[in-house]
Amino acid sequence: PVQVELANKTDSQLVSYQSDTNDWYCRTARRLLMERSGQRELEPAAVQQLESLLEDKNARVRLRALWALAACGRLNVSQLEQSLIDGDENVRGWAIRLISQAETAVRGGSRRVDSLWPSLVAMGKRDPSATVRLELASACQRLPAAVSKDIVSGLILHGEDDKDHNLPLMVWYAASRIAEQEPASAIEFLDSCQLDLVSEFLARQLGQMWVAQPSEASTHAFV
Predict the structure, then answer these.
(1) What is the pLDDT along the chain (223 residues), one digit of tens a residue?
(2) What is the 3-state secondary structure (H, E, C) of the chain?
(3) Can you tell me the distance from the alpha carbon of 183 to that of 205, in angstroms, rounded to the nearest whole number?
(4) What is the pTM of this model?
C-alpha cells in the first residue's frame, strides 16, 4: 500500500500541495500548516509562497490559498480587498464569508475590516452572481446592523432572484433583523423590494409588531 506522511514535510512543501490535483493532499497539508502556525511562526518563504498563490491562474488554487492564509492567521485586509474583485464568483463569495468571520480569520480581527464595508454594499447592488449575493445575505447576520441595512437595500432590488430556492429566504432573514431594530427601515424596504417572499414576510412582521406594541410601533413607523 501507498504510505503517505506529510507531517515530515517542510512548510514550503506543504504550501506546494495547495496546487495538487489530489484534494486529500491539499486539505491535509492545510491542516498541518494551521497546526504549525499555532505553535510557531511559519517559514517566511512559505508564507510568501502561499501569498503568491492568490494570483494563480486557477481559481481553485486561489481559493485554497485564501483558506490556508485564513487558517494560519495570515490573511490581511489587502488580500481580502483583492479577492472581492476576483473574476471567480466562489473566490468573491468566500472573501465575503471570511470578512464576516474576521474575528478569527483576519489578522487584527474584525476592527481591521471596516474599510471593506463600502465594497460589500456595492456588491449587494451590482454583483452579477447569485452565489455572491447569497453569501452577502448570509453575512448580514454577522455584520454591523448599519452595514447589513445598506446591503439588504441592494439585495432586494434583484428581481431575478425572486424564484431562487434560497436567496429570498436568506434576504428575508437579513431584512427581519433590521425590521426588529428599525421598523421604519422595513417600510422603506417594502417600497422598493422586488422579491415577493421578502415583501410578504416583512409585511407580516410589521403587522405583528403593530399588534404586539401598537403605541411604540406607531410612534416609530406606522403613522
Answers:
(1) 778 899 999 999 999 999 999 999 999 999 999 999 999 999 999 999 999 999 999 999 999 999 999 999 999 999 999 999 999 999 999 999 999 998 888 887 666 789 999 999 999 999 999 999 999 999 999 999 999 999 999 999 999 999 999 999 999 999 999 999 888 888 899 999 999 999 999 999 988 887 766 555 455 554 4
(2) CCCCCCCCCCHHHHHHHHHCCCHHHHHHHHHHHHHHHCCCCCCHHHHHHHHHHHHCCCHHHHHHHHHHHHHCCCCCHHHHHHHCCCCCHHHHHHHHHHHHCHHHHCCCCHHHCHHHHHHHHHHHHHCCCHHHHHHHHHHCCCCCHHHHHHHHHHHCCCHHHCCCCCHHHHHHHHHHHHHHHCHHHHHHHHHHCCCHHHHHHHHHHHHHHHHHCHHHHHHHHHC
(3) 9
(4) 0.89
Measured between alpha carbons, how far is 180 from 182 in angstroms, rounded to an integer?
A: 6
Q: Which amino acid appears at position 162 of this protein?
A: D
